[in-house]
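Tokens for chain A. Residues wanted.
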């Protein structure tokens, strides 16, 4: 990604944490923060709209965890993932899903600088391989059994991602190479 700014999206449900991370990232000329989200669903919408190079994900967020967001990122042009959390116990799972880095809160400037160096050094080929590794890791049985049970289905509605309670979705079907979900008389595109 050398030669251009690395486009970043931040997702954290804590306003102060989002603002602090954005402030620290602004100290790096090679980084441009293109958006910040307060929840997992908002993060998916923002990533879909902005197509960032990197997404910084908190692990614990409303509606979808950071690990679930990573799982739902689109396969094409998947951004690199850096997890940011106060909990060290998720580090193994984060790297099992091919995270670029794992930062513990409170974030130290030196540690963030190291993550930024990794982001900037990642070539497009390495990024593509990391995306394929993430796909393989998320499909692995040992990861599947640790993933929370799917209770909500992320669907597209206009330019947003909505979460439908799975128990309220009577039908999921395919039409013209698309997967759709029927909910309360409407059809929604499923990622």
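Reply:
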């Amino acid at each position: 990604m050398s030669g251009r700014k690395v486009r970043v999206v931040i997702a954290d449900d804590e306003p102060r944490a989002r603002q602090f991370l954005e402030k620290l990232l602004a100290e790096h000329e090679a980084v441009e923060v293109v958006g910040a989200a307060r929840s997992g669903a908002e993060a998916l919408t923002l990533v879909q709209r902005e197509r960032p190079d990197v997404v910084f994900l908190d692990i614990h967020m409303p509606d979808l965890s950071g690990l679930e967001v990573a799982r739902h990122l689109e396969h094409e042009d998947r951004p690199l993932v850096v997890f940011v959390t106060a909990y060290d116990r998720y580090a193994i799972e984060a790297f099992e899903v091919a995270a670029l880095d794992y930062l513990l809160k409170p974030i130290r400037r030196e540690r963030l600088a190291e993550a930024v160096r990794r982001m900037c050094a990642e070539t497009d080929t390495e990024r593509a391989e990391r995306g394929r590794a993430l796909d393989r890791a998320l499909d692995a049985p040992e990861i599947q059994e640790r993933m929370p049970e799917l209770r909500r289905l992320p669907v597209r509605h206009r330019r947003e991602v909505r979460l439908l309670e799975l128990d309220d979705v009577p039908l999921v079907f395919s039409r013209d190479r698309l997967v759709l979900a029927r909910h309360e008389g409407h059809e929604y595109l499923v990622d």
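The radius of gyration is 17 Å. The mean pLDDT is 82.
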